[in-house]
Design goal:
The complex is a heterotrimer of chains A (294), B (179) and C (249). Chain A is mainly alpha-helical. Chain A is 71% helix and 0% strand. Chains in contact: A-C, B-C. At the B-C interface, α4 of B face α3 and α7 of C.
């Protein structure tokens, strides 16, 4: 068995590699839906290397640089708490609540950095991002509460162990559905893509980020899609005893938002909030009620 | 062309102002020629009494032969669907006219455009700063005395372009004709 | 002393480079890293989605399904900070040129400008207009031109392939020319915008940082920029004998 220290190095690396493949998968899927060929196999690598290889890195001050470290640090910290086949990392020491708390750190880091940029598009974008976060966090917290009550524990390895017989998605389908929608909102894909919005606010928080800052955001995107798929897999699909099964589940879960995103235009900012507080929250409350009545 | 052939209700308005020349009438257009100082009054009457609420455009024509500018005010009536074009000639030397911004707010932009393209000053216009030609330092470019080609030849230089196929064509007696 | 000496014309205490640091002078590690970086840069190009003139109508057909540009790694990006390529599609009015220069100077290097359409080459269809510029290469350094009015998507793909081949070979360095000959570019820009025109970025400081500050960077037209940077005086480059226009100190 590997020591925790070695696992703490390996888990983000594996997550990054799987995330790269997921980003390629996302772009190829979009291309196939649009009846064209997508980018080549190593495209995410080319993008990230090119962005880090820019000859001038336009920085807006030390806070801007620290904020990017916070963003990437936050997503890496989340990954350390997600148990994967063969490695548990810190999952035995922290629980689901810690993980959800850490999920908010990247957005806060981005907010700090964008505040330094002094571009009104960025400020509008980040205020929309935090608004969206208030939107999807409500159903997410309800699902976390429901899961904790149903399994009687918030420790992720124990939740995995308790799904040995039947998967969580069959025990509590409504909560799984609400979690899927909340994850979709967390990924900020259309129709919930209000903070990027390239045609309206010139990519929002990323408006002044070029070079290494943009490269870090691309890295964050890799980790984010992986986290979205892996969290749902661990909570509701029984994790995976081995890597092929685990990866299949992660890709299947990630494919749902990544397919639906190509079919929708963008909601308005307040519509996202209304919708998130109506449908996934309603479904999560219903699922929570069913759990508590059991 | 007498006043009876002009469609009402603009008929009553036009009969109140002597000295108009109504030069052409078709189904939906009336062309008037107005002496300079009567134009704002005509527009006010058209707007107030005959319901010509929409100023479509103000155009300007440069007449170097008679040293005049001709301003044309096109107003449109939604009810009768008739457009009245009122032409007024002003001498080029002062090149000033009164602004009709108080009657029609869109006139502000038309007058701003005519000011930067022709150099006509409108008294009472709210803002006459250039907005299309913000980096322009020459004479008003729509004047007939301004030659765009001469300006371009003086200000810019051309890329040397001598391709092989052109040399072949010139060898056989053809070439590019410079007009 | 026997042996080959490289003639250096500048005083060793200044930062003015009078010789071009070519490929053969870099170390092996530097060359490998540069080649890898160029390989990745060629295959991931972000185009600024700023459609300057009527030629921009040919960009959506190139990006969408029929002539897919994403399979070459090219995607449109929203802001100059994120983009590598600035496509000048079509004619440039003098008013737009000012904004294009502001945009160009905000982009981080290496950056590639492509003149798209005949209007950027020699005036094109609007050659006799008083309000458009005739040669784009006078005002910002241009990497490639495509002729056409406007070029078809096949021609655009050909241009991108040519640009990618150039980046791969390490020859796509027209952006450095802006720093090497800033005075000439500024002179042309000032002939349109007035003698007090200056860009939003400190181009001389950037040139100094890249090591591209040469004799032709500073000149009579950049003289009024020295109020921003006292270090211009520290350079002490004697320009009087070269140009007869007085020194910059």
């Amino acid at each position: 068995m590997m020591t925790v220290a070695v696992q703490m190095l390996l888990m983000p690396l594996v997550a990054f590699l799987v995330g790269l493949v997921l980003v390629l998968f996302m772009r190829r899927l979009r291309a196939r839906i649009e009846r064209r060929v997508g980018p080549p196999l190593l495209q995410p690598v080319y993008d990230i290397v090119k962005l880090y290889g820019k000859r001038s890195q336009i920085s807006h001050g030390p806070m801007h640089e620290i904020s990017i470290m916070m963003v990437v640090g936050g997503v890496i910290a989340v990954v350390l708490f997600l148990p994967v086949p063969g490695m548990q990392g810190l999952a035995a020491h922290g629980d689901l609540i810690t993980l959800v708390y850490l999920l908010m750190v990247p957005s806060l880091g981005l907010a700090l950095g964008v505040g330094q940029c002094a571009n009104p598009n960025g400020s509008i974008g980040i205020s929309r991002a935090l608004t969206a976060m208030v939107g999807y966090d409500i159903p997410l917290m309800l699902v976390v509460a429901g899961v904790a009550i149903a399994y009687g524990t918030t420790s992720l390895p124990q939740i995995l162990a308790m799904q040995g017989g039947t998967w969580g998605v069959f025990q509590m389908p409504l909560l799984a559905l609400a979690m899927l929608i909340a994850t979709y909102g967390m990924l900020a894909k259309e129709p919930f893509e209000i903070y990027t919005a390239p045609a309206e606010i010139a990519t929002g928080p990323m408006v002044e980020m070029g070079g290494k800052f943009m490269g870090a955001l691309f890295v964050m995107q890799c980790f984010q899609i992986y986290t979205a798929g892996a969290l749902f897999t661990v909570l509701f699909l029984g994790g995976g005893a081995s890597w092929p099964g685990f990866l299949l589940k992660v890709f299947a879960v990630a494919a749902i938002p990544l397919t639906l995103t190509n079919l929708f235009p963008r909601y308005r900012a307040e519509r996202v909030l209304h919708w998130m507080w109506k449908w996934p929250t309603g479904i999560a409350l219903l699922g929570l009620a069913l759990i508590m009545l059991r | 062309m007498t006043a009876e052939q002009v469609p009402t209700p603009v008929d009553e308005v036009l009969s109140q102002l002597p000295g108009l020349e109504i030069s052409r009438v078709s189904g939906s257009r009336v062309k008037l020629r107005v002496p300079g100082q009567r134009l704002p009054g005509l527009l006010a009457l058209l707007k107030g009494q005959a319901g010509y609420l929409h100023l479509s455009a103000i155009s300007c024509v440069d007449w170097p032969q008679t040293d005049e500018f001709e301003l044309v005010y096109h107003v449109w009536s939604y009810e009768t669907k008739v457009m009245v074009s009122a032409h007024v000639r002003i001498p080029r030397e002062p090149g000033r006219y009164v602004s009709v911004y108080d009657l029609f707010i869109p006139a502000g932009y038309f007058e701003r455009d005519i000011h930067e393209m022709f150099g006509v000053e409108f008294e009472g216009a709210p803002d006459l700063r250039p907005f299309v030609l913000t980096e322009w330092h020459g004479p008003p470019p729509m004047l007939k005395s301004f030659s765009s080609i001469d300006y371009v030849e003086e200000q810019y230089d051309w890329r040397d372009y001598r391709p092989d196929w052109l040399a072949d064509v010139e060898q056989r007696g053809g070439g590019i004709e410079e007009t | 002393m026997a042996g080959k000496t490289i003639p250096i014309e500048s005083d060793p205490n200044t930062e003015v480079a009078c010789r071009d640091v070519g490929g053969e002078e870099r170390s092996l590690l530097r060359r490998v890293v540069d080649q890898f970086a160029d390989h990745c840069r060629a295959r991931s190009l972000f185009v600024l989605h700023y459609c300057t003139g009527c030629g921009a109508i040919e960009l959506p057909p190139s990006i969408t399904a029929r002539f897919d540009l994403e399979r070459m790694g090219i995607q449109p990006m929203a802001t100059p900070r994120q983009a590598d390529i600035l496509l000048i599609t079509g004619y440039l009015a003098v008013k737009t040129l000012k904004r294009v220069i502001l945009t160009y100077e905000q982009m981080p290097g290496p950056k590639y400008v492509v003149g798209f359409g005949s209007c950027t080459i020699n005036g094109g269809m609007y050659w006799h207009s008083y309000a458009t510029i005739k040669q784009l290469g006078n005002y910002i350094p241009v990497e490639l031109y495509i002729a056409g009015c406007m070029p078809r998507p096949e021609a655009i793909q050909q241009m991108f392939l040519e640009l990618m081949a150039r980046i791969d070979r390490g020859e796509a360095r027209a952006w450095e020319d802006y720093y090497r000959r800033y005075d000439a570019y500024l002179a042309q820009q000032q002939s349109l915008f007035g003698t007090r025109w200056e860009g939003p970025t400190d181009v001389v400081a950037e040139a100094r940082r890249y090591g591209l500050l040469e004799h032709q960077t500073l000149g009579p037209h950049t003289a009024h920029l020295e109020r921003y940077a006292p270090y211009h005086r520290e350079l002490g480059v004697p320009l009087a004998d070269k140009r007869g226009s007085g020194s910059l100190v």
